[in-house]
Amino acid sequence: MSALGFQGRPLVWIDCEMTGLNPETDRIIEIAVLITNGNLDLVDKAGCQYVVKTDKHVLDK
């Protein structure tokens, strides 16, 4: 078993694209998710990706 106890267990990887890093003023505009097994091999090569509907004025900032 690894030091963190992840060996052999699936992992979910989440990537968020944001307009900035301030949670008060910035927004998430895209989210992608991948799942790997304990050996870090992709379980589903397609994964999933979502674009969050965002007003143009937010993107223009």
Outline type? elongated
- How would you characterize the largest beta sheet? 3 strands, antiparallel
Strand order of the main beta sheet, please?
1-2-3
Beta-strand content: 25-35%
Summing up helix and strand content along with how strands pair, one would put the structural category as: mainly beta
**Average of pLDDT:** 87
Q: What low-confidence regions span 5 or more consecutive residues with pLDDT below 50? A: none
Number of helices: 1
Domain Exonuclease: 12-56
InterPro entries: Ribonucl_H (IPR013520), RNaseH-like_sf (IPR012337), RNaseH_sf (IPR036397)
Organism: Thanatephorus cucumeris (strain AG1-IA) (Rice sheath blight fungus)
Protein name: Exonuclease domain-containing protein
Please describe what this structure looks like.
- The protein has 61 residues and is mainly β.
- The protein has one domain (11-55).
- The model has no long low-confidence stretch (mean pLDDT 87).
- The radius of gyration is 16 Å and the shape is elongated.
- It contains 1 helix and 3 strands; from the N terminus they run βββα.
- It has a 3-stranded antiparallel sheet with strand order 1-2-3, with no helix packed on it.
- Helix content is 7%, strand content 34%.
